[in-house]
Amino acid sequence: MTAPTPSAGPVAGGAPRRDILDRLDALRGTDLPVRGGRTMAYVYDSGLDGAEELAAAAQARFAGVNGLDMTAFPSVVALENAVVERAARLLGGGPDTAGTFTSGGTESCLLAVLTARERARRTRGVTAPELVLPTTVHAAFHKAAALFGLRTVSVPVDPVTYRVRPEDIAAAITPETALVVVSAPSYAHGVIDPVAEVAAEAGRRGVLCHVDACIGGWYLGHLRYADGLPQPSAFDLSVPGVTSLSVDLHKYGYTAKGASVLLFRDAELRRHGWFAHASWPGYPVVNATLQGTKSAGPLAAAWAVLEHIGTDGYTELSRRVHGATASLAAGIAALDGLRVLGRPEASLLAVASEDPALDVFVVADEIRADGWYLQPQPAFDGSPANLHLTVTAAVAGEETVRLLLADLAKAVERARALGPATVDPALAEAAAGLDPDALGPEEVGLALSLAGIGADGALPERMAPVLAVLQALPPRLTERLLPEVVGRLYRPEAGGPARAAESGPEEG
Ligand SMILES: *Cc1c(COP(=O)(O)O)cnc(C)c1O
Question: Which positions bear N6-(pyridoxal phosphate)lysine (predicted)?
Fold first, then answer.
């Protein structure tokens, strides 16, 4: 009898609960922290005691409930209506406003585009739909165009303010335009596009206009209730011409991940994005989102946290975030060698260098050693290399802001002494000459080793040299290489610390 090969062999079960949870905790030990405000991208911490625990308890109660069938689980309809109503009331909705709860900002953006494409096709006979996008919109809209077959029309933004110009949008609209998108605010620079002017241009031409308020909507909406603070320019559904809006609850709603709302002018618009199917032998299908089976856990968690924090609570959180962002922006501007890009109107900062001897990506590597994560944003189309900071309520409080500014000042000094990460110009030129569509495995391996990425996909400790290479490559080549890097990480045979224990003849 041949022994089973280890990779195909049976897996030992029955590990004790305590062991399993200890192993999960050990895995988390290598991650960035999700609480405390030092990870300034990807995570959102309200800093409030009990909010996260409440979300976890609500999530556990609804984890097994399936939002796929609202007739079997009416609780899902009740919770979703309550959450959507809340978002609509905050963000300029009226009696006709309709909405959908989705798994996140990307899904909200995808559905906004899909809905617009279907409406353009069905009501205007558009056969080659176009999506008009400022160059600063979130990547999710390019994903939507790629998935749903729309042609993107990119509109450059003002090189100083990073806001799109309404006349440039107007010039980009054609009879084939299905949707125009603006950001409130943009992820990269935290600035708000001229929503009212753009929506008016779109509306005048009978074209839909989506406001991507994924990251800033909940924050800016509540900031309006905070007396005495500067008010954001109008950006929501109350603006004439705005036909849909996305707002993520798992960002400044501080709810559990997997929570966003997509609002529509009315249910007649919303229905174009739904999928219904009765031509198969199974159950009749109607999906408002991209998922089939979907856990009601994130919805229940979102509802619970919204009920718990409430309008006054969110207003106070917005006030704190505003204060911390303003203090950080002022402190950073006062640091020699750094500047804040544009005039951020929300809670996001893009910090660039104004000194050729100072590489912001080296600053990011340096300050990471002090426990801060600032997110590198490579140079693109007039936007210089910079560091992104998402300021959440956990950053608020003079102590954290003071610590960050002090650590940043020291990191800047160390980065200056180290000098910028550089790329051999000859290598960069050779790489730039590669045709992304014709790369074989050898060229891929070569390009990755140039960036310091090994055959196992392991990233080097310091990211500045990798980012320097990445920045020197044409974006299309980078887009060819990124999946190769990640593909080297996701290999079952690579095993790793979470590998299942095997049982076989040897183990008995
Ligand atoms: C975060 C974000 C998205 C995408 O949201 P996910 O929740 O990450 O899928 C879209 N637009 C903007 C402006 C964002 O900041």
Answer: 251
Q: Which has the closest alpha carbon to 374: 420, 408, 416? A: 408
- The region that residue 343 occupies, defined by phi over 0 for left and psi between -120 and 50 for alpha, beta otherwise, is beta
C-alpha 220/C-alpha 134 separation (Å) is: 21
Sequence-distant (6+) residues with CB within 8 A of 279 are: none
Q: Is the CB of 140 under 6 A from ligand 1?
A: yes
Instruction: Give the integer Cα–Cα distance in Å for 176 and 178.
Output: 6
Q: Whose C-alpha lies nearest to ligand 1, atom 3?
A: 105
Give the phi and the psi of residue 208 in degrees, each rounded to 5.
-75, 150
User: 111 CB under 6 A from ligand 1?
Assistant: no
Give the tokens for residue 13.
Answer: 């079960």
Q: What is the structure's pLDDT at 507?
A: 43
Reduced to 3 states (helix: H, G, I; strand: E, B; else coil), residue 339 is strand
Determine the CATH number of domain 59-277+287-305. Answer: 3.40.640.10
Backbone angles phi, psi at 391, to 5 degrees: -95, 115
Q: What is the CA radius of gyration of the chain?
A: 24
Ligand 1 atom at minimal distance to the Cα of residue 260? 7
Phi-psi region of 50 (alpha: psi -120 to 50; beta: other; left: phi over 0): left
Domains 59-277+287-305 and 319-418 share a fold: no
Cis peptide preceding 156, ω within 30 of 0: no
- Tokens coding 321: 């975030």
d(CA 54, CA 98): 28
Which stretches of 206-347 are assigned E, i.e. beta strand? 208-212, 244-248, 260-264, 275-277, 285-287, 338-340
User: Which has the higher per-residue pLDDT, 288 or 439?
Assistant: 288
Domain ranges of the chain: 59-277+287-305, 319-418, 425-492
Interval 340-361 mean pLDDT: 97
Is residue 214 in contact with ligand 1, taking CB distance under 6 Å? yes
pLDDT digits 0-9 by tens, 174-232: 999 999 999 999 999 999 999 999 999 999 999 999 999 999 999 999 999 999 998 99
> For a pocket test of ligand 1, which of 138, 235, 290, 348 has the largest count of ligand atoms closer than 8 A to its C-beta?
138
Residue carrying the six token digits 């079952």: 492
List, for residues 88-139, the tens digit of each pLDDT value.
Answer: 999 999 999 999 999 999 999 999 999 999 999 999 999 999 999 999 999 9
253 lines ligand 1 (CB under 6 A): no
Give yes or no for a contact between 176 and 183, defined as CB atoms under 8 angstroms apart.
Answer: no
Amino acid at 424: D
Question: Scanning the structure block, which residue is given the tokens 């709810």?
Answer: 255
Residue 343: Cβ-neighbour burial (10 angstroms; 0-12, 13-18, 19+): middle
Does the Cβ of 106 fall within 6 Å of ligand 1? yes
What's the confidence (pLDDT) of residue 508? 36
At position 396, the amino acid (one-letter code) is: A
